[in-house]
Write a structure and sequence with these properties.
This protein is mostly beta strands. The chain has 2 domains: 211 residues, no CATH class; 82 residues, no CATH class. Helices cover 6% and strands 52% of the residues. The radius of gyration is 24 Å and the shape is globular.
């Protein structure tokens, strides 16, 4: 039996991580039951091995019996298996601490970053609605949904910041679809190789697009979906410094925090006119560098970054309570 790990490497398309991008247009194909729609992506660290290689080789034995390179790019969709998501109910809290329930699609037992917009079916006690699933790893996220009589357009955009110095890391962009019956599933996608020697700010962008036309009661409707994912290299901060300044640029208070450990809310003193947020980083040569941002009473919050154990840098938001000083 063919080693599945080697098979995964052979099937993945690894693209050198550079300051560039690519675009993949997905046509309205029959393998998605003609009504299955692209709704987003599931981004995984490992190749999502859903291709039935054994079945493919069995049916195409004559093509490769004399040797040669196995090319599955144009293989029939019957060899492409699916990873289905489960519709689950979660209990959350709003800003006042009151609990409420919501329903969402979850890919169980798979480590990955979901980013998709799906239709949640109605129940006896709740109407159906459109929901966007995301993860804190998606920064600068933006979702746009437009629905009209003759057109439906959905657009998703987001950035994943990857810590520099992690070596070469693979990320796999797996398309997610929703069927006419409401089920949600992922199929194997393409891989991107992130070269650790790239400098901070280097990025790669992949766009997936799909446009379909459906006819209901004699009326045609165009449904389009677009998702753009950017992967960007970042030097993770080692320390966050918050400096509170008065109107004469005198320091009122200076606090230092570990990344990700800032308080949820900071209340500047009454004499504070603005604050400086400084992120201290260490470059490739080991030198300490800093970047600074200034916030005044027109700003209600600010963002800083911290690095998770998986090498992804995510944002922490801190509120500025200017009114209670």
């Amino acid at each position: 039996m063919m080693n599945r790990k080697i098979l995964a490497i052979c099937l993945a398309v690894l693209i050198l991580f550079m300051a560039s991008g690519c675009q993949l247009a997905l046509e309205d194909k029959g393998e998605h039951n003609n009504r299955d729609r692209l709704v987003g992506v599931l981004i995984t660290d490992e190749y999502l091995d859903l291709f039935d290689m054994e079945g493919y080789l069995k049916d195409n034995f004559n093509k490769y019996s004399s040797g040669g390179i196995i090319n599955t790019d144009n293989a029939d969709s019957k060899y492409q298996e699916r990873l289905y998501a489960t519709l689950k109910t979660r209990t959350l809290k709003d800003d006042t601490g009151k609990t409420f329930e919501t329903r969402e699609f979850v890919f169980d037992n798979v480590e990955g970053i979901p980013y998709f917009s799906v239709k949640i079916p109605p129940t006896e006690n709740e109407v159906g609605f459109t929901a966007s699933a995301s993860d804190e790893a998606i920064s600068d996220g933006h979702v746009s949904i437009h629905e009209g009589d003759n057109e439906e357009k959905t657009s998703l955009e987001g950035t994943i910041y990857v810590a520099i110095g992690q070596g070469t890391i693979a990320r796999y962009i797996n398309p997610v679809y929703q069927s006419a019956d409401g089920s949600v599933y992922a199929i194997s996608g393409k891989g991107i190789s992130l070269a650790g020697e790239q400098g901070e700010g280097a990025s790669f962008t992949q766009t997936l697009e799909e446009t379909t036309t459906v006819t209901e009661n004699g009326n045609s409707k165009t449904i389009s979906f677009n998702i753009k994912i950017s992967l960007k290299i970042m030097i993770p901060p080692e320390k966050i410094v918050i400096i509170q300044m008065d109107k004469n640029s005198n320091i009122i208070l200076k606090d230092e925090y570990s990344p990700g450990k800032l308080p949820n809310t900071i209340t500047p003193g009454a004499e504070v006119d603005y604050i400086i947020v400084e992120s201290l980083k260490r470059d490739s040569e080991g030198n300490l560098t800093s970047s600074r941002s200034i916030y005044d009473r027109r700003n209600q919050n600010f963002e800083t970054f911290y690095c998770r154990d998986d090498g992804i840098c995510v944002k922490q938001w801190t509120n500025l309570d200017w009114d209670n000083n």
